[in-house]
Amino acid sequence: MVDVGPAELRDAAAKRAAMVRDELDRLQEGIDRHHDDVRRLRRELGQAWEALTDALVPDLDGARLDRLSARLEAPSLAAASVHAAIEADRRELERGVADLEAERARRGDSAALAERLREIKAEMAPHAEVIDLFEREHAWRELFDLGYGSAGYPLRWWQFRYYRHRRHADELLASLGPQVGAATFAELRERYLAEREARAALAREWESCTTRKSALDNLDRGLRVALAARDAVAERHLAGVRRSVRKRLHKLPPDELAERFTDLPEVHRAALHIAGLDAKRRALERIVHAWIERPRTELLELLNGDERDLVELARDGCERAMPWELFVDAYPDLRPRWSERWRIFERCRGALLGFDDYASRTAGMSWWQVMVGVDPPPPPVDGD
Amino acid sequence: MISEAEGCAILTRVFESRGYQIARDVLLAVGGVELTADGWDAEARVGFEYMTLEAGDHADLTTEEMAELDERMERGELFLFVIDETRIEVAADLEWAAEAFLDEVSRRRAGGEGG
Predict the structure, then answer these.
(1) With contacts defined as CB-CB under 8 Å, which chain B residues touch A157?
(2) Cα–Cα distance list, A333 to A15, A25, A277 (Å)
(3) Are both A178 and A269 inside the same structural domain?
(4) Which has more confidence, B32 or B91?
(5) Which residue of B lies nearest to A165 if distances are taken between CA atoms?
(6) Which of A75, A218, A316, B48 is deepest in the core (most CB within 10 A)?
(7) Does any domain span residue B115?
(8) Burial of A101 (0-12, 13-18, 19+ CB in 10 A)
(9) Which helix (H) or strand (E) holds A286?
(10) Does the distance separating the beta carbons of A161 and B85 come in below 8 Å?
């Protein structure tokens, strides 16, 4: 009997660990793809439910609602009840619209306010120009703030700064006086103050108009929303009835749902679609669990064992050996098995995802048989 | 910027050109105010006081003291040109202001206003 020594054992463990890591990566990709598949199926299921409720409740026709109410044993879906709720809702919304319209009329004209705002802007411009004329002069601010040209000016004729101010004031008067029609600095000051006050008054009016305009705009928005709600009242109740129907039918097992509506072809088709999608989702979960998740767990354990072996075999003085016959069993080539597993998985997944002829299901056949066929059979679930 | 020494020299020149006899650093007692005038003609009772931050002079005269000086100058008892600017960039500004002050003193002495 030939023994396999530590070097060969280490090579075999390292080689297998590398292959297992690659396979684990591939399995992880399979899980990611599965999550994408489930998301797509969920979207499609939502659309199928919409198709079913649209077919079951295409409108709020009284006779149809009464039949549906009886069929689902749901008095709240009876025509009298639904139509009364719509009328109550409509009346309430009409009241709201009337209130908003009255308030709108009471608050005046938005266009007139907008026009006044444009006028104020135009009226402010010449004042701003004159004020700017003053404020562009670097000496103006100090003289104005100190009250030069007014009784409040604090400096006296025996102070140097008084003369500096006087000089600046003379220069400002020479420059600004002719432009604004002022003969003395006091007149300059008065003109500046008058311009500022005029601008401030317009700014106050602007603020007030803006506030009123904003309130009117809010009212207009509220009115638009209320009108839209009033106009869409029937539509909203139709959506509510459909939601209520869906909630009730959701409680039924999907296959039973299809059986309940064999007399309504369009509804039956939608119900089969829902049942098929549900079966498809469960079948996908099953194949992913059996051929992706479970092998992944097993391979992780195998990898952990190989990594422990590699640590031990790398130690100085390790004399571990294994008879050739045992070595062949311990390190078999796993790739053919993996390849076969992937082949079956991909075939089943492709068949499941590609299936769309839900109406073709016949009594006595499982969804798996309809979608995938008899070979391979569905993988057993844990505990089977 | 003109220093206090340069400023005082300029003011002395301007005042003297207008006929005043300026003595430097004269101790003045005006009512409750005591100060050392940078330039002073004791006979004419005309002079100047240069207040700069560098000499810390701004702390020398309180608001009350300034008010008392004002009162006396309004009555024509004395005329003290107070340079209350911390930064004077150009000599011509100081000269122009001193001439304008002395014109005002002449006007007041001639009986235009005050004492």
Answers:
(1) 101, 104
(2) 11, 18, 38
(3) no
(4) B91
(5) B97
(6) B48
(7) no
(8) middle
(9) helix A265-288
(10) yes
Q: What is the pLDDT of residue B114?
A: 44
Query: pLDDT tens across A66-93, in order?
Result: 999 999 999 999 999 999 999 999 999 9
CB contact under 8 A, A158 and B73: yes
Question: Can you give the pLDDT at residue A2?
Answer: 74
Residue at token pair 């590609």: A354
pLDDT tens sequence across B21-43: 999 999 999 888 888 999 999 99
ipTM of the complex: 0.92
Q: Which domain holds residue A27?
A: 3-57+254-371
Question: What size, in residues, is chain A?
Answer: 384
Count of structural domains, chain A = 2
Q: Which of A231, A262, A287 is the last residue of a domain?
A: A231
Give how far A143 is from chain B: nearest CA, Å. 15
- Same domain? For A298 and A207 the reply is no
Pairwise CA distance, residues A265 & A281, whole Å:
24
Say if the Cβ atoms of B82 and A166 lie within 8 Å.
Answer: no
Residues from chain A that touch B2, judged by Cβ atoms under 8 A, are none
